[in-house]
Design a protein that fits this description.
With 419 residues, this protein is of the alpha+beta class. 22% of the residues lie in helices and 31% in strands. It has 10 helices and 25 strands. Strand 1 and strand 2 form a beta hairpin. The protein is globular, with a radius of gyration of 24 Å.
Length: 419
Amino acid sequence: MENNYYDWCIAELARRLGKTKDEKLFRERSIGYSNLYNPDKNFIWPKHTDGTWMDMDITTWDGMRKAYISGNIWAYSAYTPHDMAAAIKLFGGKEKYANWLDDMFTREINISGEQHFDINGFIGGYGHGDEPGHQMPYSYVFVQQPWKTQKLVNQIMTTMYFNTPEGYINNEDCGQMSAWYIFSSLGFYPVSPGNLKYHIGAPLHPKATIHLENGRDFVVEAKNRRLENIYVQAAYLNDKSLEVPFIEHSDIMSGGKLVFEMGPEPNKNWGIRENLALKATASSNSEYGDMDIYLAKNVNDGNKANKGHGPKFPSWGPDKIKDPWLKLEWDHDVTIESIRVFIRCDFPPYSFNEHDSWWKNGNIELSTGEKIPFTLEKTAEGQFVEIPTSSVSWLKFTDLIPNEDKWSAFCEIEVIGVD
């Protein structure tokens, strides 16, 4: 499981270096965990080399130790920090994954046999004293229940770390035990180092300042932070309301201020964002109204509640810009199946039916590094572009080739299968 994450890191590096062959290899390897999901057990389960499931008694430590040297079945079943959207779907969706987490964090551990010396600090099946599971308390953020993350993070910081000679549970282990505490006490944590996001937990201190090497400061302030006020009521990044439960690395490095309002009861409306926010940007816009963007579960689902507006119709003529592009970005990774693109409009002054103006072809770049070619034809139903099943945080229409010297514009886009 850890190697899957390492493979993802290598794939990301290969993408940035333009080594597409290496990226494809390691991207495929990074989802190897999906071959180990046992639906009958609802765990990531070990297999023999012939593909058959291994017999394993999870009621004894001795039964598990042949498959788990460090960590345990709960820690490694949840070790998919680089591919959370797809992993949650594998477990049956957000509700079922949330129930799986609830069971894991609340179950009584009555397991016989010799316990591995490196596993302690238990909350249910979660052992904070063993580092492979350190991202697990933040998993509730991915199922729209961030208040449970806030409670768990506070519980761990206040019951497993001590300003005494006792120190903290287990050993330092290359600095990870302290690193978890420092990040978490600030109010955020890098669940998947490499994707440049820090997910929100619960700040411990009323105020903290990070002095950056570039000379800037990033200030974290927790208003009303008292012993009983462990839940985030609201958050503001540089005086703007922060509705999503994460910040970007660039937010920190740019300097600024992150402000939390804390309270004694969970605010179950903060940080959930069931309809993922979508930001659309383009290299050039027209003056003829907003482009419509729909997020749909399936082809027949218009889902008007998920309708959003993009920029003004992204449009380009041969005399406007040489390298047109349109980019769609989500709050965090989403899994999509296909895209339906409409680039015709039935209102003056331009009618695509009359002027036969649309792109012949182009590419869709994904945040995974993949590039999907597409060709558009003249049609009133729009053009479907199939997307390989993968988690993406953005997609970008690039390399757009217009039909000779005609004027072209996006009118409507449907993103289908969003989860």
